Amino acid sequence: MLRAMSAPAAPCVLVVEHESAIADTVLYALRSGGYQVRHCLLGREALAQARAGGIDVVVLDVGLPDLGGFEACRELRRFSQVPVIFLTARNDEIDRVLGLELGADDDMAKPFSLRELVARMRSRAGSGTARSRSRSTATAAASTTATPHWT
């Protein structure tokens, strides 16, 4: 008896960004790149979604209004090893190093190239294998920048 093979589910990206112009553009780019996308505005909401599972990569803004991105990453690392890419308006080396030391896998300074973000997503999300690295799942454009314009 033959069974039809179904295609693997597209990797799921959780975008945590409170600036709507940036969030809308990132969401569009990732959806166009074939990703499933979830979006939230606050760090605490992101942690709840990550605990619920099914996330392959987190794109996390450093400057969130409730719980900063650094603190959200620190909390996330207590229960998950899902890859984290920071988005930050901070360009100081110390901030990039701090983010990496807190457990981020990558860092992109705003404004950033959407093509580069999608390429970094591909290297982090793969084909959905990051979900298996999450401890919580069992329990619970080269010159295009992230602005409202597409070129």
End-to-end C-alpha gap? 50 Å
Text of the CATH class:
Alpha Beta
Number of structural domains: 1
CATH topology: Rossmann fold
State the total count of DSSP E strands: 5
What's the helical proportion of residues?
25-40%
Which residues form runs of ≥5 with pLDDT under 50?
Answer: 127-151
**Mean pLDDT, all residues:** 82
Structure in words:
It holds the Pfam family Response_reg. It is found in: Cytoplasm. Keywords: Cytoplasm, DNA-binding, Phosphoprotein, Transcription, Transcription regulation, Two-component regulatory system. The protein is α/β, with parallel strands linked by helices and 151 residues long. The chain has one domain: Response regulator (Rossmann fold, 3-Layer(aba) Sandwich), CATH 3.40.50. The chain is built from five helices and five strands; from the N terminus they run βαβαβαβαβα. It has a five-stranded parallel sheet, with helices on both faces. Helix 4 links the parallel strand 4 and strand 5. Helix 2 runs parallel beside helix 3. The longest helix has 13 residues. The radius of gyration is 15 Å and the shape is globular. The C terminus is likely disordered.
Which descriptors would you attach to this protein?
151 residues; alpha/beta; Rossmann fold; five-stranded parallel β-sheet; 5 helices; 5 strands; 34% helix; disordered C terminus
